[in-house]
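Below is how a single chain appears once it has passed through the pipeline. First comes the sequence as given, then the structure the pipeline wrote out for it. We keep one example in the README because the format questions we get most often are answered faster by looking than by reading.
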Amino acid sequence: MSDPLLDRTLPSEATPTGYVLRMSRPRFWPYLAGPVVVGVAYAAASTAELFAPLAVALFVYFLLPANVFLYGVNDVFDADVDAKNPKKEEREVRYQGDRLVPALVVATGALGLAFLPLLPAGGVVAMVAFLLLAAEYSAPPLRFKTTPVLDSVSNGLYVLPGVVAYAAVAGSVPPLAAVAGGWLWAMGMHTFSAIPDIEPDRRAGIRTTATALGERRTYAYCATCWLAAAAVFGLIHPFFAAVLGGYPLFVAGIVAAGVNVDRAYWWFPAINTVAGMTLTLAALWVMLYG
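Resulting structure:
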């Protein structure tokens, strides 16, 4: 792995801590923790609720342990495929068959289950769904990632931390349109992230939505998911539609400019952070000023 930023900030990849942190994909930590922040911001009725102990604990869990669980399962069951994936040489690490990762997967999964007694019914359903989808995306018997369309649909799991957090603070689940819109957004995000893997996956005989569609049609699929997400969010408020509407414009821009997808893929952590921050600041503004 060669990532100058991570190499400067994390322990050596040769150490267990350094390896596990890299395996958890630090650049993608906001993908699970970010929805928690957004969910809490929209559920909270006061600034005190923003920092309720359960909300903070969920943020910490989805920031690191949940990523260890999600990507640990992925790396264990994708070891053969990843051996031929150049992305593992550039920005990620390869699983080498050690016992540490499976042990951490079990531990972090159990940690997620430990939240269940503290959550209302809707939060319990969302947490269980997250853990099941995170595992079965890569693990047998379902291994959703090898079935076109299901690989995309199952990755709505990324919105579930927000549902869990919202339920933990508000005592009820968020509006259905918000969940559906977030799910569509996550489907587009996942499928876009699979574009750089099209050739390695084809060589390994893995069928995904991206390998079935090819690069250009996958761009169209992602843009369609994001347009649908914007439309569904628009049922709640036009502001949400405006924020989500930036994603299909981004796809159109990179296609028109001929930007290599391997490069554009790594812009999304920043793009998603800005989008999430915009949504969160809007929630805080409404809370404070009405």
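Residues 4-289 form a domain with the Farnesyl Diphosphate Synthase fold (CATH 1.10.600).

See the next section for the split statistics.
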